[in-house]
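PT: before anyone asks, these are the final sequences, not the draft ones from last week. 670 residues across everything. Please model them as a single complex and drop the result in this thread when it's through.
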Amino acid sequence: MRLYEFEGIDLFRREGIPVPDYALVTSPQEAREKAQEIGLPVMIKAQVLTGGRWLAGGVQTTQSLEQVERTASRILGSSIRGLPVKQVMVAQKMETAREYYLGVTIDGYQGTPVAILSTAGGVSIEGVARAHPELVVSRHVPAIKGLLPDAQQMAREAGLRGEELVGVATILRNLYGVFCKYDALVAEINPLVRTIQGTYLALDAKVEIDDSSLYRHPELQIDLADRIANPLERKGREIGVTYVELDGDIAIIASGAGLGMATMDIVSRRLRPANFLETGGAISAELLYNVMDLVLQKEGIRAVFINVYGGINPIHEGAKGVVRYMQEHEVTIPVVAKALGNHQEETWKIFEKGGVHVVTEVSTEKGIEQLAQLLEGKA
Amino acid sequence: MSILLNRETKVLVQGITGRVGRAQTKWMLDYGTNVVAGVTPGKGGEEVEGVPVFDTVKEAVAQRGADAAVFFVPPPAVKESAIKTIDAGIGIIVVVTEHIPVHDVMEIREYADERGAWLIGPTSPGIITPGEAKMGILPGNMFTPGRIGVISRSGTLSYEVSINLAIAGLGQSTVVGIGADPVVFTNVADILELFEEDPMTDIVVIVGEVGGVQEENAALFIDRWMDKPVVVYIAGHNAPEGKRMGHAGAIIRGSQGTPQSKIAALREVGVDVAKYPADVVGLVQRHLMPP
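LR: through. Structure below.
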């Protein structure tokens, strides 16, 4: 889960990375007050959980209190990539002498952390790496935790010397500390700046925490469901499934992620999927009851396609939940189920009795064909 | 022969006394798997489905000769259990557990690599050598003995592809679910190497999906090292950017992880890529029965 910039900045401060003075505000008036306290000029920065804030005009430098109020008012009323801006950061603006990029992320293929340092900060690091690979110094770091031993050597390779070498390397080491301590997938400062006074400040924070590690980070106080903007996707998280809203009208329920994606691919040949939904390995009657309720909340659903395998999942239990939902809510649109694996015969019986169209053929392609025929009134 | 697992493999079940561990032990035994021991700290001396339970892996290895392990252990306990299992000398470990912190996965992988242990997972459906044995949750009735090796990032999709193959008379030598977390213990290319060397495998099917660079690296390996034909299906042509599609690793970021980049890399080295899962069958048949 990605953190808001201000949350990342707070983590940085806690772990010894210098950050500018800032305040978090929700109204233009408050922005003006805080700007006065911090001292002009200030940056006004939209706090949304997406990239592309600069391009969307969500980050502005302001020189006067009137401009602060006006800019905060405009940004607070706007949306960036569909996300409404509810809070902005008012941050001290410093005169900078130089910008750097510092990052620690994961090389998924090699399975180790990677530390990255560049003297080309403030722009997209992917772009720099393509156009000027010589400006990017990166190192794979052993996964079994230790100090990042190479930070000073990396700074040296990036052309830094003297006090600058030590200053930037220290911050990279502290950033690696943040990455390890908080189970981050990404911890990035872009840009880190050197002010004309010779001090360093992290002007931005991009931190993404591993969702699977949140159980051991109560200090972060992250409520995952809280951060999901789409109400159906949030509901999915609350009931324990992954739901992604799409723009079609055929609801999909799958018992695995790969199967769900393949089902989406196949449905898209002739029809349009309304959603991706993956139950994971904890199917029960109650879960599938809730899942039916979730997928049918979207307007205009024409049919439901259920694609489940009984490996770890008791699919016969799941079938009971589907059927109970259909009875209680008098579902009349076609519900088609392909269910294979452990307990498959029992599952078919429960579905059939409950008015679900059961596909006993093994390929999802055949199942979707039958669903299409039902919709066309041919079956 | 087969890879990683056969009917002789002496399987230990980590977390055998839990709800899932018990149920899956029964399915594994019913399939013919040689389950010799279970481990749950504090439950030593009990039995599950006639399988003796030990407090430690060390005892299970000493008394029952276990040489492979399958994990049904909750996420916070996996790192310690994995290290103990590796230290006890077990060389093949399948981790079914979902939602293990990525930092733990990286540490376990490094620990295993330094000691030469094969770990599969996490979030793995398991390994099955049809007609012989299975470790994990794969439902046995989806698989048939034969000469096709299957490597899958998805559990359920490995079942779908295998049963489609089986109906066309194409059985499998071994099916390996490597899992789909952002970091997996063993990459697709490592399993490709085992199948390339396995005399019981004629052709390999990879079931991939969006996210990461597994398929791109598999393409490099195939080009350089493989003689056996490979057929691939990649799930998620319609996955929207930046959304995690159920698997923690199934996320497209910018141009990385897209199905287009994977398909291009594979086609460039002459690998057939199926558009839909059932199309895998036809592509496999084309290699086995040249016109």
